[in-house]
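Late entry, written up from scratch paper. The run itself happened at the end of the previous shift, but nothing got recorded in the book at the time, so transcribing now.
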Amino acid sequence: MPSPIRTALFGGTFNPLHNGHLAIVKSVLEQGLADEVWMLITPCNPWKKDQELPDDRLRYDMVAASVKDMENVFASDYEFNLPKPSYTANTLRHISADYPDREFILTIGADNWIKFHNWREADFILKNYPIIVYPRKDYPIDSVSENVFILDCPLMDISSTQIRQMVKDGTPINEFVPASVARTIEDLHLYC
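Output as recorded:
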């Protein structure tokens, strides 16, 4: 029986996707922590239930356009068909059943790792899935459990929240987001 494909799941609202997200994906693959990365566009994050989001499909399209030329990186709308909000344990159960040829690896930021104990079914996730934690400014990682890996990647001092504020303020965002994302935001007057 062949070895399972190691698939890193990098979930988020990607509101919008920015170059920091892509740097994380590249680092995961370059360091051999996964064979491929699926960028799961989340329709409703339980921590951000009140956040207004552009249409799910639009966010998916922005991610897909941004990663289309990246080898072994794919946009995924898998969570679009699951109950909302999108609880990670639920997603992992479903996706593991649907893709038994893969070993799924959760990819989260240090900001989520420090509150991971508050996630629904955190113990189930820790027991059954490897986790890659990427650094975030102002979120020091003091300790990790077995089966948790700290990603060695550049610390990008940018967030989707900052990008949205820059758009609102009329500040150019081209150096922080892929060209296709900047075009979509401008063409559709997103975040104004």
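The mean pLDDT is 93.
(Scratch paper discarded after transcription.)
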